[in-house]
Amino acid sequence: MSVRPTTSNELRAMWLRFFEQKGHAVIPSASVIPENDPTVLFTTAGMHPLVPYLMGQKHPAGNRLCDVQKCIRTGDIDEVGDASHLTFFEMLGNWSLGDYFKKEAISWSWEFLTGKEWLGLDPDRLAFSVFEGDEERGIPRDDEAANYWRENGVKDDHIFFLPRANNWWGPAGQTGPCGPDTEMFIITDKEPCGPDCSPACDCGRYLEIWNDVFMQYHKNADGAFEPMARKNVDTGMGLERTICVLNGKKTVYDTDAFTGILAKIAELSGREYGADEKTTRAFRIIADHMRTATMILGDPRGVSPSNVDQGYVLRRLIRRAVRFGMELGMGEGFTCEIAAVIIAQYQDVYPELKQNEAFVLEQLKLEEARFARTLRQGEKEFAKMVARMEGGKVIDGVSAFKLYDTYGFPIEMTKELAAEHGLTVDEEGFAARFEQHQKTSHAGAEQRFKGGLADHSEQTARLHTATHLLHGALRKVLGDEVAQKGSNITAERLRFDFSFGRKMTKEEIAEVERLVNEAIAADAPVEMKETTVAEAKAEGAIGLFESKYGEKVRMYTMGPFSKEICGGPHANHTGELISFKIQKEESSSAGVRRIKAVIGAKAE
Questions:
Q1: Which residue has the higher pLDDT, 67 or 417?
Q2: Considering 96, 104, 440, 584, which has the largest number of Cβ atoms within 10 A of its Cβ?
Q3: What is the DSSP letter of 192?
């Protein structure tokens, strides 16, 4: 008899137990905000925090790992509200860092999927895709993976050979590790869409449940794919989607991940989830966005709502939730009540949520109040706009976009107010203006994020080392209450966010700069030691994000200037930084300051 999990907690525990029995070390989830990676705003996949180790760095916990990783993807934010799109999700993952490869990965995937003491799925309801090969690039068909599925009893008509678009991963940058993958699907009750129906279709017959990536090639700068001597395995299974399938639910919102949140929304709004399409969509948007916002705010590297980077996304999520809450008639302060439910639901899995609860609730309260002021200002501007129309019946797209872009007034609110005044909005004109704005923003982001970690590893290591020296200097000048709240590194500069309640004086900035340059002049060796969190703290190390590194951690010491728990790349000596100059000190968000700085160029 199968002991198939029915709740998210049961599935998490079963996953970790299974791979622990296969010799994997269980590591905690990393932050949802990547450390020192300018190429993305959030951790978007389970493998993201492990890139340095997939590239060859030794992981303190060993070469077999498993975890449940918090992930955030906001590219489809406007699609949230349907049956499947989420901005926050949990990814179950396991890795081999140069240890086992396809045979073991596929055998264990089959065992976990079909074993009676695990998921116990019917083998006849499973399908598998493998890479069909790429003659142009000299990469053969992955018959090896297909044969391993056959060895486990999979029939040929349940194995599909698909192209790169379906069964190839990476590299993450222009160059780096990459390879074919094999994906696992549930065959639903939907009839085939035709004779060529396969997991590549969008007809809904095949629902992806798991993905095993085999990193066996390295893409070189010349575009050639070279077989790697050290091969890795990276797998990922979406928790919400899987628990939905296991319980035979139609949508992820019908699982225990959301039932408690939706019940709270119903209680606060006096409305019934599922009453009609519009109400259902509003419930789902509020539930999803509040869950994601709570995870961002409650993260060890949590940020505050702002107009840039992660803070901008966070602000958009909160305000979108508030707007749909208003549609449901929910009163002021409802975001805090929903967040409290989410914290209670996840605090045993992610203890940082409870630890940061006061900050989460404070920031939600402040942002609700700010948005209320924005709406009031937007309403005033709307009234002025109507007065200038002199009897016109259509609000032009440029004016509607100005309300959105300048005053943060949602287009939906503009349309509602227009209808109340017997007016309409030129939605096509607004959409055109919005698309133009998006293209400009996207181009700017591409330029800004040009050259991430993979392309500037030496420079990244130098700048990363500088953030440690800066952190140490700030604590000496401003006090031990200073704590890192985030950092961002490009090829040109470092950005460092830290907790501090006021603007730094010119004298303080100068002294911090002097201390960092003193450490650089000392040319102290950057020494790494593998140890435990307790031992590192006993030696006086600071480690704000140490939970993500597991039982064993790396401690970096730079003479008397810095001692931190860290997992990133570093210079060999502080002298390699040449010099250090603070370009700007400014506010990042409430109670958080930001420093932008550069280091000296190395002689050619």
A1: 67
A2: 96
A3: P
